[in-house]
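User: I'm curious whether this sequence folds into something compact or stays loose and floppy. Could you predict its structure so I can see for myself?
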Amino acid sequence: MPSDCFWTFCRTFISIALEIADLVLDWDFYAEVVATKQESIQKAKDLHYAILAFAIFGTLTCVSSILIKIYCFWKKKDDTSVFVILSLISTWLEDFPQIILAMIVAFKSTELISDVQVIKAGYTIAEAFIQIIRLVWLFRVKKMCIKYCCCDCIGDDNEDENKSWIKRVIICDLFGQSILLLCAIILMVELQVDTFK
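Assistant: Here's the prediction. I'll summarize afterward.
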């Protein structure tokens, strides 16, 4: 159906645009931290290296995610288990460490380093909120028919195992997104306090 194809294209395009925006914010944040004149941040070279490492890891997950989304769109695959796993990896191994590093920078600095900090915190709040809604919806779907890249769970002998496995992944990601949202809110409050000092 052409209408379905259009909405799938729009969803894929928006998702890729958001991935790229997040990547740009990660690298801009790194550049701002390295360029700051605040002595407490300038001397923290380990912090610089940690932010750089997670920006590089974020680049790899971004490229992987974009390639998978383009492949699935091209092959007309809808929602795949790969997306759920990639979301889990991105949450726990990229987003969570990055928000912790952003909090460390915010608490170490005496004033706001850059508006990028506020934008990144706001973006993280919005992204985590949207992801929580999406994950709750995925978890609550009665039939839980998530299509896999290789096979459909419909008519699969291991359908119950697949549903159980994917539900555990969703719960773990939901927990991570909730923690991420809380950390991003704390970061935003700290940044606002720094702004008005």
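Summary: The radius of gyration is 19 Å. Residues 146-157 have pLDDT under 50 and may be disordered.
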